């Protein structure tokens, strides 16, 4: 007989152990399978979101294309109606009118007969001159012009002086408009109508001649909104409606805005703003029936208030003069435009424009390197 100290567990206990191990293995397999499925599901979710984003972009692009076609159709019908009214059936090409030039943006610098020194201060700082101005149009599609109408007296000394200045610089866009401070709303309408008849651009910009502008930063900012169908870009504000007479910015039609003390609807401040092509087309087509308020920026805002328009509040379009724009430039946040709110432009801009440009300018290469 042989004795041993080994203990042999019962067969039933061993079977339970094997069953437990098998269960653990099965649970691990199931767990790993779930993790794999979750990962695959997460990847599928990301793929779906990417497809949704691409589809949204495609719809936005299509919406812009449809909008532009509608606007161009309306413009064509409007032109045909005008031809019928005038008793003319010839085309613009047959009349010797050149076709519209393609551009990225057209900038109209609002100026007056008495503002020669202001214009020179702009030419000496942020506005390219001569061959550089033509190169800017050809290579970047950026058109910059001083916009001005005519004096009340035909061929006056003011007009002749401007003709001489134009011969020297070739940087004016002459408007069929009689100049006058209280005619800025009418001038704005005529500018957009004239500009869109001459250039087929993505954006049209109005700026005052006592404002400093960084053209490269402006172009890069507008390029980010290129795919949107109807945009109105500027420093949006909502100031009080001034009913008192003999005050600056008095609103004769104050009663239309409700009770005394009310504010205007949100609109871009008048020193600088930009609108997309279809909005400029809308203004051109509907010129005769667009109401003019006393203040030009209010007028523009009122023309869009009932339309499907995206208002973009771009605070870089209303920086203060140094040190404000200087600090922002040093921090890498270059301003689009700079001026003094207290003067509705740069105070004493003729003397101060170069200083603002030196402190807040984007640098010569920024404009030519801007991705549009």
Notes on the protein architecture:
Residues 73-100 are annotated as: Disordered. It is found in: Golgi apparatus membrane. It is a single-pass type II membrane protein. It comes from Sesamum indicum. This protein is an alpha/beta fold and 372 residues long. The protein has a domain at 101-236 and 268-369: Spore Coat Polysaccharide Biosynthesis Protein SpsA, Chain A (Alpha-Beta Complex). The protein is 47% helix and 16% strand. The protein has eleven helices and nine strands. Strands 3-2-1-4-7-6-8 form a seven-stranded mixed β-sheet, sandwiched between helices. A two-stranded antiparallel ribbon has the order 5-9. Helix 5 crosses helix 8 (296-304). The termini are far apart. Mean pLDDT is 85; it is low at 79-92.
Provide the spatial order of strands within the biggest beta sheet: 3-2-1-4-7-6-8
Question: Which CATH architecture of the domain at 101-236 and 268-369?
Answer: Alpha-Beta Complex
Poorly predicted runs of 5 or more residues? 79-92
CATH domain class name of the domain at 101-236 and 268-369: Alpha Beta
- What can be said about the biggest beta sheet? 7 strands, mixed
Number of helices: 11
Question: H/E order of the elements?
Answer: HEHHEHEHEEHEEHHEHEHH
End-to-end CA span: 100 Å
Overall geometric form: elongated
Supply the helix-strand structural class: alpha/beta
Q: Quote the average pLDDT.
A: 85
Strand content: 15-25%
| Spatial extent as radius of gyration | 32 Å
CATH fold name of the domain at 101-236 and 268-369, please? Answer: Spore Coat Polysaccharide Biosynthesis Protein SpsA, Chain A
Which bin fits the share of residues in helices? 40-55%
According to DSSP, the number of beta strands is 9
